[in-house]
Design a protein that fits this description.
five-stranded parallel β-sheet, 32% helix, 28% strand, binds flavin-adenine dinucleotide, alpha/beta, 448 residues
């Protein structure tokens, strides 16, 4: 008889970890199977290594401001091998942390590959090829996503995905980044701050097409100031790996550009990781955009759920975790939270950062309030005056907000709560904010 679980989760990223942890907290016997690294993409190739690099590059870039604050630092230099150690250490802590979270929560874990052989059965294969079958009342698919490549472009030693770039041990002199959405812009920021010659190529007519146009415009200026050469409305025709460099041919309007760099980074999106044969056998409905789920994250097959990037949509770690909690809540009969994509904040970790939540589309029915960083005393003292907050109101209630500026990722948190709670202007006017703080930027939005 196969060993029995209440829940088997396949994939140990943020979605899978959150789901298993919550189910176990409600007394369910839960198992997570992971085949690459605990913590998934987030810990190993996503949120954590990129932010470790961006922390280093920001500190280096900020040194240039110190002179204006009366501090002289002689000849600062980048030690990329030390930066890589910092990155590896952060990854190690995050991956161990994800595994420890499961162990502390009494979740069983197995390293290897899980395959769903029936809606109640999972086959587990370890690294040596040993196979075991487990049965489960419920199964959660949390396979994640993978880079989406342009059809005519093949990765190589020098034409890299973000996974490959994070493994580079030597800082290149130059890089051409294809795609100016969030991942491309974050790498452009980091590499340019570390002194790499960066070229950013984007097919659409602006960088960060999902962000507020003014916020993206401000960031474009900042990236240009950093030395990033930005080409929008520019189509990559082809890239060649010549062995010691790459040559990218780009059509920008009527102009044909040739960009030569040490490496190319492909940032043309991510797509759900679909083990299609397995899904077809189980008759689980999916499209190329992801596995289809209902409001409880259940697929069309009863007892089989899917959470996180594998379902498509906003590919963010905290959204995956939320979906995991909702699925586990449904399984445990404790469904206290519901899913509203509008309430999920999204951040671009550029310098300055851009953060947004809710509906940030301008229209005749929407009132937009704006407050500038330059009017804030802390922003002035910290020399971070380039930025603003915009809040969007409909019928007197806040429906969305965006921030571009220092600490935007942190500052979006209270606005997320305000948007989730559909707070009114009157309630927000009563919000008391300590002085002097960067958060006082918000008083400019709600006063009067
Ligand atoms: P994943 O984290 O991808 O985990 C899925 C896991 O399942 C993987 O480890 C995979 O190996 C495993 N798996 C798949 N199939 C099987 C199988 N058959 N058996 C066993 N295991 C299997 N998000 C943010 O919110 N903030 C950020 O700052 C951010 N930065 C990012 C930067 C980069 C460069 C990238 C690539 C992504 C970033 N993301 C960020 C996105 C974030 O990493 C993902 O949204 C998040 O990890 C999705 O979680 P998940 O649980 O759905 O899947």
């Amino acid at each position: 008889m196969p060993e029995e679980y209440d829940l088997i989760v396949i994939g140990g990223g943020p979605g899978g970890v959150a789901a298993a942890r919550k189910a176990a907290a409600h007394g369910k016997r839960a198992l997570v199977i992971e085949n690459a690294g605990w913590g998934g993409t987030c810990a190993n190739h996503g949120c954590i290594p990129t932010k470790a690099l961006l922390t280093c590059s920001k500190h280096f870039a900020d040194l240039k401001k110190l002179k204006r604050l009366g501090i002289n630092v002689a000849d600062p230099a980048v030690d990329f091998s030390a930066i890589k150690k910092h990155q590896q250490q952060a990854v190690k802590i995050a991956a161990l942390g994800a595994h420890k979270t499961l162990a502390d929560g009494q979740v069983e874990t197995k390293f290897g590959t899980g395959e769903i052989t029936s809606p109640r059965e999972v086959q587990y294969k370890d690294a040596e090829g040993n196979i075991k079958t487990f049965s489960a009342a419920n199964i959660i698919i949390a396979w994640g996503a993978k880079p989406q490549l342009l059809p005519q472009i093949r990765p190589s030693e020098r034409i890299l995905t973000s996974d490959d770039l994070l493994k580079l041990e030597k800082l290149p002199e130059s890089i051409v980044i294809i795609g100016a959405s969030v991942i491309g812009v974050e790498f452009a920021t980091c590499y340019a701050e570390l002194g790499v010659k960066v070229t950013l190529v984007e097919l659409l007519d602006r960088i960060l097409p999902y962000e507020d146009q003014d916020a993206a415009g401000l960031l474009r200026q900042e990236l240009t100031r950093l030395g990033v050469s930005i080409h929008t409305a520019a189509k990559l025709e082809n890239i060649t790996d010549t062995g010691d460099s790459v040559v990218a041919r780009v059509q920008a309007g009527s102009e044909q550009l040739e960009k030569i760099a040490n490496y190319a980074l492909l940032c043309t999106g991510r797509k759900p990781l679909l083990h299609e044969e397995e899904l077809d056998k189980l008759k689980i409905e999916y499209t190329k955009a992801g596995i289809k789920v209902d409001k409880n994250m259940m697929t069309n097959v009863a007892g089989v759920y899917a959470v996180g990037d594998v379902t498509g949509g906003l590919m963010l770690a905290h959204r995956a975790a939320l979906m995991g909690e909702i699925a586990a809540g449904h399984i445990s009969g404790e469904d206290t939270i519901s899913y509203n994509e509008n309430f999920i904040p999204a951040v671009v970790y550029s310098h300055p950062q851009i953060a947004r939540v809710g509906d940030i589309r301008e229209s005749a029915e929407v009132q937009v309030r704006k407050s500038e960083y330059s009017a804030n005393i802390i922003a002035r003292m910290e020399l971070v005056t380039n930025g603003f907050v915009k809040a969007f109101f409909r019928d007197g209630k806040i429906i969305g907000a965006t921030i571009v500026g220092e600490e935007a990722a942190e500052l979006i948190a209270p606005l997320t709560l305000a948007v989730c709670e559909e707070m009114t202007e009157k309630q927000l006017r009563a919000w008391i904010i300590a002085h002097p703080t960067l958060s006082e930027i918000f008083t400019g939005l709600f006063s009067g």
